[in-house]
Amino acid sequence: MKNKIDYADFYERAGRTNGWNFSSLNVVSENIGWNFYEEVVRHTCSSDLLLDIGTGGGEAILSIAEEALLLVGIDLAQGMIETAQHNLQVAGTHPNVRFLHMDANKLVFPDSFFNIVSSRHSGFSASEVFRVLAEDGIFLTQQVSEHDKSNISEAFGRGQSLGIQPGTLMERYKHELQKAGFQDIQAREYNVVEHYVTPEDLMFLLTHAPIIPDFGKVDTDFERFQQFVKENHDEKGIRTNSARFMVTARKYMIPY
Hints:
Elements: H1 4-17, E1 27-29, H2 36-42, E2 49-53, H3 59-63, E3 70-75, H4 78-91, E4 97-101, E5 114-120, H5 126-132, E6 133-144, H6 150-156, H7 168-180, E7 183-196, H8 199-208, H9 221-231, E8 233-234, E9 237-251
Parallel strand pairs: 2-3, 2-5, 3-4, 5-6
Antiparallel strand pairs: 1-7, 6-9, 7-9, 8-9
């Protein structure tokens, strides 16, 4: 597994070249349990202030910009924020959206400032989220489960979560949220079949997401990739799996 410094470097490079936009990929996930930002919108009012942690290239919150009074996206990678700023300029119609370079472990916002906090596929500090969230506010996070893309990790003999018991990260986050003071903590999961239509689509994913650490730098990677495509190709494309979990938690008003 990559260490923290490697991940920081990876996200910087990904941010400058692609942001976190995989919308060009031809991929079909069968019967997914939810769309994360649709869930965020479902809990959002037009007067709300929303914080998105690990916003990447900002594509997600730009797509829901009309749903809140103010939307702030933060990311630890300067490259991601530069991409997000560019995407905001291109959109040109969202004066209520801001993108800031910031560490999620040290949020530079006042206490009880946001009504909604979201985090998709990004780390967060439960105590910092609790601090900046207003009373009766909600936190939503979606994360990649340990058994996501399991056949790919097995084919390459390495993966970002290979060998880790599924559910480990979800239970850790639930514990951290409870310790921070959150209540009504709820979790759900899905694990569905996913098809990448062409080998190029799958290659793009592996190049721009940290599924296989140091993909392309190991001499046998291309040979393993070709073999994987051959063994997992059917009429719908190249088969793998998409495994996600979502946790929601409330910060309730403290009774006096």
